[in-house]
Design brief:
By secondary structure, the chain is mostly helical. The protein is about 80% helix and about 0% strand. Keywords: Membrane, Transmembrane, Transmembrane helix.
Length: about 50
């Protein structure tokens, strides 16, 4: 289950970066933040 959430988080982060490149700033930031909460970002920081 943890691996599935990790993969989902990575996909959300990548989608957020793509949205930022397409100048959809708000949507990109939201996707990146959700991806960090769900996936690898906070676990690397020792929070999740």
């Amino acid at each position: 289950m943890a691996a599935l959430l990790w993969i989902l988080g990575v996909v959300l982060i990548v989608a957020g970066v793509v949205a930022l490149v397409r100048r959809q700033i708000l949507w990109g930031v939201v996707l990146i933040v959700v991806g960090l909460v769900v996936g690898p970002g906070l676990s690397f920081a020792g929070i999740g």
